[in-house]
Amino acid sequence: MARIRAVGAHRPAERLSLAEMITRRQAAVRLDIPVEMAQRNGIPARMTEAELAAIDQNPPAWLAQSRANRTGKKPVWVQLTCVVCGYSEAARPKKWWPEFTYLSCFDHGYDEVPPPAEGLSRAEVDGIGTRFVGIVDAPA
Ligand SMILES: [Zn+2]
Question: Distance from the CA of 31 to the center of ligand 1, in angstroms?
Fold first, then answer.
Protein backbone atom coordinates (compact mmCIF):
# COMPACT_ATOMS: atom_id res chain seq x y z
CA MET A 1 0.00 0.00 0.00
CA ALA A 2 2.50 2.59 1.09
CA ARG A 3 4.25 4.56 -1.60
CA ILE A 4 7.49 4.47 0.32
CA ARG A 5 10.04 1.89 -0.57
CA ALA A 6 13.69 1.33 0.09
CA VAL A 7 15.89 3.04 -2.46
CA GLY A 8 18.36 0.25 -3.08
CA ALA A 9 19.23 0.17 -6.75
CA HIS A 10 17.25 3.27 -7.64
CA ARG A 11 18.99 5.28 -10.34
CA PRO A 12 17.70 8.77 -10.96
CA ALA A 13 17.88 10.08 -14.51
CA GLU A 14 20.94 12.19 -14.89
CA ARG A 15 21.46 15.26 -17.00
CA LEU A 16 23.48 14.95 -20.13
CA SER A 17 26.28 17.25 -19.07
CA LEU A 18 26.66 15.42 -15.76
CA ALA A 19 26.14 11.97 -17.19
CA GLU A 20 29.38 10.69 -15.72
CA MET A 21 29.28 12.56 -12.42
CA ILE A 22 27.12 12.08 -9.36
CA THR A 23 26.94 14.25 -6.26
CA ARG A 24 27.88 13.21 -2.75
CA ARG A 25 24.19 13.16 -1.83
CA GLN A 26 23.40 10.87 -4.74
CA ALA A 27 26.31 8.66 -3.77
CA ALA A 28 24.99 8.50 -0.19
CA VAL A 29 21.52 7.55 -1.46
CA ARG A 30 22.93 4.84 -3.68
CA LEU A 31 25.12 3.45 -0.89
CA ASP A 32 22.22 3.88 1.57
CA ILE A 33 24.31 5.79 4.08
CA PRO A 34 23.80 9.23 5.66
CA VAL A 35 25.39 12.15 3.79
CA GLU A 36 27.36 13.01 6.96
CA MET A 37 28.91 9.55 6.95
CA ALA A 38 29.87 9.91 3.29
CA GLN A 39 31.49 13.27 3.98
CA ARG A 40 33.28 12.12 7.11
CA ASN A 41 34.82 9.21 5.24
CA GLY A 42 36.08 11.19 2.30
CA ILE A 43 33.43 10.60 -0.37
CA PRO A 44 34.12 13.56 -2.69
CA ALA A 45 31.57 16.24 -3.61
CA ARG A 46 31.43 14.76 -7.09
CA MET A 47 32.47 11.39 -8.34
CA THR A 48 32.02 9.20 -11.38
CA GLU A 49 29.71 6.23 -11.73
CA ALA A 50 32.77 4.01 -12.00
CA GLU A 51 34.21 5.34 -8.72
CA LEU A 52 30.92 4.75 -6.96
CA ALA A 53 30.59 1.26 -8.39
CA ALA A 54 34.10 0.46 -7.17
CA ILE A 55 33.24 1.61 -3.62
CA ASP A 56 29.94 -0.26 -3.70
CA GLN A 57 31.46 -3.52 -4.90
CA ASN A 58 34.67 -3.36 -2.90
CA PRO A 59 33.66 -1.33 0.18
CA PRO A 60 36.34 0.29 2.33
CA ALA A 61 36.47 -0.82 5.96
CA TRP A 62 34.18 1.95 7.27
CA LEU A 63 31.47 1.08 4.74
CA ALA A 64 31.77 -2.64 5.29
CA GLN A 65 31.46 -2.01 9.05
CA SER A 66 28.44 0.21 8.56
CA ARG A 67 26.75 -2.41 6.41
CA ALA A 68 27.50 -5.15 8.92
CA ASN A 69 25.97 -3.04 11.70
CA ARG A 70 22.82 -2.23 9.77
CA THR A 71 21.49 -5.71 9.10
CA GLY A 72 17.74 -5.79 9.56
CA LYS A 73 17.41 -2.10 10.38
CA LYS A 74 15.28 0.41 8.56
CA PRO A 75 16.69 1.86 5.34
CA VAL A 76 18.66 5.08 5.65
CA TRP A 77 16.89 6.50 2.60
CA VAL A 78 13.41 5.96 1.20
CA GLN A 79 12.01 6.98 -2.16
CA LEU A 80 9.00 9.31 -1.92
CA THR A 81 6.76 9.24 -5.01
CA CYS A 82 3.69 11.34 -5.79
CA VAL A 83 0.64 9.19 -6.57
CA VAL A 84 -0.71 11.90 -8.90
CA CYS A 85 2.22 13.04 -11.07
CA GLY A 86 4.96 10.56 -10.27
CA TYR A 87 7.42 13.18 -8.98
CA SER A 88 9.92 11.30 -6.86
CA GLU A 89 12.74 12.13 -4.49
CA ALA A 90 14.94 10.31 -2.02
CA ALA A 91 14.56 11.38 1.62
CA ARG A 92 15.73 10.38 5.06
CA PRO A 93 12.69 8.83 6.79
CA LYS A 94 11.66 10.52 10.06
CA LYS A 95 10.72 8.62 13.19
CA TRP A 96 7.42 10.48 13.41
CA TRP A 97 6.23 9.46 9.95
CA PRO A 98 3.25 7.12 10.06
CA GLU A 99 2.80 4.53 7.33
CA PHE A 100 1.45 6.46 4.37
CA THR A 101 -1.25 5.12 2.10
CA TYR A 102 -0.31 7.69 -0.54
CA LEU A 103 1.99 10.62 -0.98
CA SER A 104 1.03 13.56 -3.12
CA CYS A 105 2.67 16.89 -3.92
CA PHE A 106 1.15 19.58 -1.72
CA ASP A 107 -0.11 21.52 -4.75
CA HIS A 108 -2.36 18.82 -6.20
CA GLY A 109 -6.10 19.06 -5.59
CA TYR A 110 -7.71 16.82 -3.01
CA ASP A 111 -9.83 15.23 -5.74
CA GLU A 112 -6.76 14.18 -7.75
CA VAL A 113 -5.78 11.63 -5.11
CA PRO A 114 -7.63 8.27 -5.15
CA PRO A 115 -10.48 8.28 -2.59
CA PRO A 116 -10.13 6.28 0.61
CA ALA A 117 -11.44 2.72 0.56
CA GLU A 118 -14.89 2.21 2.06
CA GLY A 119 -14.87 2.29 5.83
CA LEU A 120 -11.54 4.10 6.06
CA SER A 121 -11.12 7.69 7.11
CA ARG A 122 -8.37 9.90 5.82
CA ALA A 123 -5.82 12.00 7.63
CA GLU A 124 -3.14 14.19 6.02
CA VAL A 125 0.35 14.90 7.28
CA ASP A 126 2.11 17.99 5.93
CA GLY A 127 5.78 18.56 5.48
CA ILE A 128 6.98 15.21 4.12
CA GLY A 129 10.19 15.57 2.13
CA THR A 130 10.46 18.84 0.21
CA ARG A 131 6.95 18.94 -1.24
CA PHE A 132 4.73 16.10 -0.14
CA VAL A 133 1.57 15.62 1.87
CA GLY A 134 1.34 12.19 3.42
CA ILE A 135 -2.10 10.59 3.25
CA VAL A 136 -3.08 8.00 5.82
CA ASP A 137 -6.26 6.00 5.34
CA ALA A 138 -7.20 4.00 8.42
CA PRO A 139 -10.27 2.50 10.07
CA ALA A 140 -12.25 5.27 11.75
ZN1 LIG B 1 2.75 15.36 -7.78
Answer: 26
Instruction: Tell me what pLDDT residue 4 has.
Output: 61
Cα angle 106, 112, 115 (rounded to 5 degrees) comes to 110
**CA 90 – ligand 1 centroid, Å:** 14
Where does the pLDDT of residue 59 fall: very low under 50, low under 70, confident under 90, or very high at 90 and above?
A: very high
Distance between CA atoms of residues 43 and 115, nearest Å: 44
Q: What are phi and psi of 83, to 5 degrees?
A: -70, -20
Task: Report the predicted TM-score, pTM, of the whole model to 2 decimal places.
Answer: 0.71
Closest CA to 77 of 27, 137, 23, 132: 27
Q: Is 10 exposed, middle or buried (0-12, 13-18, 19+ CB in 10 A)?
A: middle
The rounded Å distance from CA 49 to ligand 1 centre is 29
